[in-house]
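Blinded run. Sample ID left blank on purpose so nobody reads anything into the name before looking at the predicted structure. Input follows.
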Amino acid sequence: MAQMNMKEAIRDAMRVELKRDPNVLVFGEDVGKVGGVFRATEGLQGEFGEERVFDTPLAESAIGGLAVGMGIQGFRPVAEIQFVGFIYEAMDQMFIQAARMRYRSGGRYNSPIVFRTPFGGGVKAAELHTDSLEGLAVQTPGIKVVIPSNPYDAKGLLIAAIRDNDPVFFMEHLNLYHAFRAEVPEGDYTVEIGKANVVREGSDVTIIAYGMMVHTAVKAADELEKEGIKAEVIDLRSLVPLDIDTLVASIQKTNRAIVVQEAQKTSGVAAEVIAQINEKAILHLEAPVLRVAGPDTVYPFAQVEDAWLPSTARVVAAAHKVINF
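Blinded prediction complete.
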């Protein structure tokens, strides 16, 4: 086992797949010689050459179009969108061209593409760099959405995504790139896309989260435990497909749940999770399922983003509310 932070684990996943499959290509803005704005691809061009790891123009629509074209020709592109707010320029290629390729071609072509992008708050970045836009992708049929919360999952999920024959929107939280190091197997392994992870077992309330919010949920569970409340924490890992079975099994045990997301509250992932819980487990609930989320405003300026983001205290308060319902 090696000790890696999440950025290093992501880089190692690309290295494993570049070595294994000559059809894997990595490209995007500054990913070559510079190694990406966060150095996630650092050293890969030197190791694998400019034909397999290369820079593109500063045009996200071109990055997306190149990925779609290469995907239908048998390549497996790993296309980096430098910051999440820049996907708007590539949404036609990502959510219409790539996501509908198999449908439109009657199964003749597919789009084995990974669209990587950093996202997420708490780092005092500029506008359009930290939004949580996973909800746009979740509502789009034909594209999978994956958000890891730790180095082990990041490497295994990215390898699985590169090998997947469907397009995958792979979102990497900025605040997790260097947050901590963990044991990560060297070499080849995968983490199944579509399988949630029970991070912490409990019996009184289920806290469902993904990405950075998993760590906020764990901190909240630590605080609740001081009061004798045992919270179960579930890391979704994959938003599409969603592992509703793991969530239902937990709720059958705890009878209460809250969902934590960094994105704005309305029409987000939490709303979809709650809808599916109501469809499949409502008779096991002893309280409404609550959301802890960002307010329904534009992502704020850096000076006030800490007050905007979901906090441990807000998660604890939501847990008290469902327990005392």
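Unblinding after everyone has recorded impressions. The mean pLDDT is 96.
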